[in-house]
Amino acid sequence: MAVPARTCGASRPDPARTALRWPSRGSRLGPGARRPAAGPPRPLALLLPPLLLLPLLAAPGASAYSFPQQHTMQHWARRLEQEIDGVMRIFGGVQQLREIYKDNRNLFEVQENEPQKLVEKVAGDIESLLDRKVQALKRLADAAETFQKAHRWQDNIKEEDIVYYDAKADAELDDPESEDVERGSKASTLRLDFVEDSNFKNKVNYSYTAVQIPTDIYKGSTVILNELNWTEALENVFMENRRQDPTLLWQVFGSATGVTRYYPATPWRAPKKIDLYDVRRRPWYIQGASSPKDMVIIVDVSGSVSGLTLKLMKTSVCEMLDTLSDDDYVNVASFNEKAQPVSCFTHLVQANVRNKKVFKEAVQGMVAKGTTGYKAGFEYAFDQLQNPNITRANCNKMIMMFTDGGEDRVQDVFEKYNWPNRTVRVFTFSVGQHNYDVTPLQWMACTNKGYYFEIPSIGAIRINTQEYLDVLGRPMVLAGKEAKQVQWTNVYEDALGLGMVVTGTLPVFNLTQDGPGEKKNQLILGVMGIDVALNDIKRLTPNYTLGANGYVFAIDLNGYVLLHPNLKPQTTNFREPVTLDFLDAELEDENKEEIRRSMIDGNKGHKQIRTLVKSLDERYIDEVTRNYTWVPIRSTNYSLGLVLPPYSTFYLQANLSDQILQVKYFEFLLPSSFESEGHVFIAPREYCKDLNASDNNTEFLKNFIELMEKVTPDSKQCNNFLLHNLILDTGITQQLVERVWRDQDLNTYSLLAVFATTDGGITRVFPNKAAEDWTENPEPFNASFYRRSLDNHGYVFKPPQQDALLRPLELENDTVGILVSTAVELSLGGRTLRPAVVGVKLDLEAWAEKFKVLASNRTHQDQPQKCGPNSHCEMDCEVNNEDLLCVLIDDGGFLVLSNQNHQWDQVGRFFSEVDANLMLALYNNSFYTRKESYDYQAACAPLPPGSLGAAPRGIFVPTIADFLNLAWWTSAAAWSLFQQLLYGLIYHSWFQADPAEAEGNPEVRESSCVMKQTQYYFGSVNASYNAIIDCGNCSRLFHAQRLINTNLLFVVAEKPLCSQCEAGRLLQKETHCPADGPEQCELVQRPRYRRGPHICFDYNATEDTSDCGRGASFPPSLGVLVSLQLLLLLGLPPRPQPQVHAHPSRRL
Known about the structure:
Layout: H1 15-19, H2 26-29, H3 44-47, H4 50-57, E1 65-66, H5 70-92, H6 94-103, E2 108-112, H7 115-150, E3 163-164, H8 169-174, H9 179-183, E4 188-189, E5 195-197, E6 202-204, E7 210-212, H10 222-231, H11 234-244, E8 251-255, E9 260-263, H12 283-289, E10 293-300, H13 308-321, E11 329-335, E12 339-341, E13 349-350, H14 353-363, H15 374-386, E14 396-403, H16 411-417, E15 424-431, H17 439-446, E16 451-455, H18 461-464, H19 468-472, H20 474-479, E17 487-488, E18 492-493, E19 500-509, E20 513-514, E21 519-520, E22 524-533, H21 534-538, E23 551-555, E24 561-563, H22 582-585, H23 590-600, E25 605-614, E26 621-632, E27 639-644, E28 650-654, H24 659-666, H25 674-677, E29 679-682, H26 697-708, H27 720-741, E30 751-758, E31 762-766, H28 784-791, E32 796-798, E33 817-828, E34 831-843, H29 844-854, E35 873-874, E36 884-890, E37 895-898, H30 916-924, E38 928-940, H31 960-964, H32 972-986, H33 995-999, E39 1007-1018, E40 1025-1029, E41 1036-1042, E42 1048-1054, E43 1071-1072, H34 1080-1083, H35 1118-1131
Parallel strand pairs: 1-35, 3-4, 10-11, 10-14, 14-15, 15-16
Antiparallel strand pairs: 2-28, 5-6, 7-9, 8-9, 8-22, 11-12, 11-13, 17-19, 18-19, 19-22, 20-21, 23-24, 23-27, 25-26, 26-27, 29-31, 30-31, 30-34, 32-33, 33-34, 36-37, 36-42, 38-39, 39-43, 40-41, 41-42
Helix pairs in contact: 6-27, 7-11, 13-14, 24-27
């Protein structure tokens, strides 16, 4: 969620740290005073002679009274500390609650969390879960290869011969513009009934599979129909897998032809615009279909490349980047006479989401000029691939060249860099309509184990920028069983609504023999995948025994989290995996870097560290102690970690065997007891399987009570640990009411409420009416005050949260309160734990008045005496509130109390919004430290449409040979080209699309973005401290002092006389970082440690490289094409014939 801040964009000095200057005027500092030497600021009392201190403290223009002296303000601070401590001792009930726990010692046991045993058990459980999926995957892959090998190719197969459930059929029937509606599809599409299944979060049919075919593939083609024919046999294997393991979720076969067959059947989730889903572009398919890649993309930007051709190239590069995953490395360069990188990246960089975004934006700035220089482009690319000083994939190496054509074959370059071993594959792409001889391009690809492609139009881009994966799959297929290894993906969003999942993948190979010589086929048939929902993995981890601040996490070889409590993406893009680095999920430091590296390397370990953590509401930073323990999850690429605070080493386990006592305590959960015992909120946990969840706690409590009237806490359908602890804590907190709260008058001490919250899930608020204004989360583990109280000693103040853009607090009916809480620490037999938090809710207005009195010169309850014109005395916060500002600020820099009545409605705001000048001085004098980080999971309002997305695709991509074939013009292919032209009219640009809307949920209205977060926390200064804010004629004296045993800073300052010091406001509000986070160009220079997959298949001596694409030396003229197209429009109706976008050798 957060990473130590690097600047948004270029680095720049911190203006805040240089804004405060020491006074330079002798009249203000006193005769003979000197500017302090460089170094940490010190109290003025230590800097000046005693005789000179008094002139310093005299307020300007006021000889009758002076700014309070340091010992006076220290006295006020002690009075404040004593008042807070006294109230908490009387009403908080910390000591009394300890006694209650000890009195009920026979009702619970103290259990120990043993980190090493816990983490090994959870890792073993996860391994077992995934291993069951692996076995199902292997059965599917073996069956698919067997079925395809036994299948007999049918040249004359027809659509009506194939019966299947088309997952997109219902959506297409509802869409009058659908391709199949217009063509009058002849396929026999099944109509199915579906039932709701909570496991899939969808309606499913367990008797059939469903088929999804990409929009730009003709369903009636011979290749597709044969594919549908042989994959139908997988249906029985899918069902048998589910019979053996009923927990299986989606089982999917993604074919290299683009067909997706999945089980169980469910209707396709129709997008709002064009359906751009193609299984071959899904993260799991890409990972399973080839080994990691080092790719250099070079783009011809010579003068001949302009207009439409240049746009085609830009879009092609963006689509090519989308075929890369986080296991791959890439760079993009443009060339004419010289080659240069298109972005700030000067070497191969990881193909992660943020780096690819930099490339896509940079590509749009390419301009065509100069002459074509293939030599410059290829030399640059080979140099990139041979650079030994950078992190790379170290597996498949390839160069992808996009050009409009040329005569030079640059054989000398290949001889120098690539021959005879040919370790780098070269793929060439002829882009646009032109009259160049493409034979040199084909030669380059064929002599370097690559492939030649043509991209004459926008519709050809997506198909031809992903077909290269077939070539990369050849060594895998030829390696046979050695390459049949299950890989587990990063986290990503399931396209069918399952939520966040990981997928186990296994490649499926073509085992048929080619030709009479029985040459082994080297085509990959596709990838088999089985999903595992993250929620299913989370269920294997301890839920509530680790305490509010303990948790389990898991990472992969890239350092990305698979499990983490901070993995909460606000939006997800179907085209991209959810990649949150462990060091972004937490606040990065050297210890965590070391832990992350050890986990990636597959080691075991344990380490106790001091680290910073961000509060749940993201307003505060706490420095805490944490114990990290980690082990690898065998047979996977994952590693599991456990984080425990020292106080969570032990936990309570209730032992309520006495059913009479169970009933007695349970009665205190009934609303009828609330008036006398206080209102009870219960944590919305899964206590029993049949318990109906509800966001409304009153309704949830009602559901809980109704269920408990039918079952007992010992029922097998219930979580006995959760239920017993809940009922025990109900009785424990009721005894606190009985012993402490019921006989106290809260009004006497200006309290709105008292409360107790427990690990067992009980929050008891007294009196009952105070529950009406209780806004804290009923789940203690999700309540910021609860988690912070456990991590901090003493009393933690929490003012009401306010946003600077919202109107101030409305102080009506004394309902605005300030929460003060503290943890209850038990010591039982030498074992220490913190099972509860207690506290009070202060009446804001009453305590603001009390604050004035405590910070005044009153000695008794007598009336305050204001300094007269002839008397000499010190100002105080009560009498002199017109001249003196007195505030309490918490450790996050938020206003808690003020002696200024007009500031009461600003309580809870960041103090810089109240008094920017004073907050800046506190920061500059090290009372506060700033922590900047980035939230990579934020959601922002959508930006205006850009030109970086995938363009709407044409329906068919004709080859040059097709254009020369007159019969083609009466086929479905011509009709598809015509539809491509229609797409260009319907959509404002062929080269613009919104991937989120095209593939995502139509209800999504926001897009992911990076937000810069800034939090403040107490710095190194603990002493009482006086200083001057030097602003010329507007200088101000101030005093600041930490209040012992609290998270408060007591500040007394002169009120500003003018506004000359308003510059330099500190910001705390979350802001959108325009550069999408830390400068990527800087980050790639210090890449984080990672490891790629341990297997690589990039070479096989038996590979047949003769199939390397085809070219056409004599393309027809544009005039002929236009004439024939007009003829088609005027007189020839479209007549569909079998056509498909497929690899030329994709004959099954």
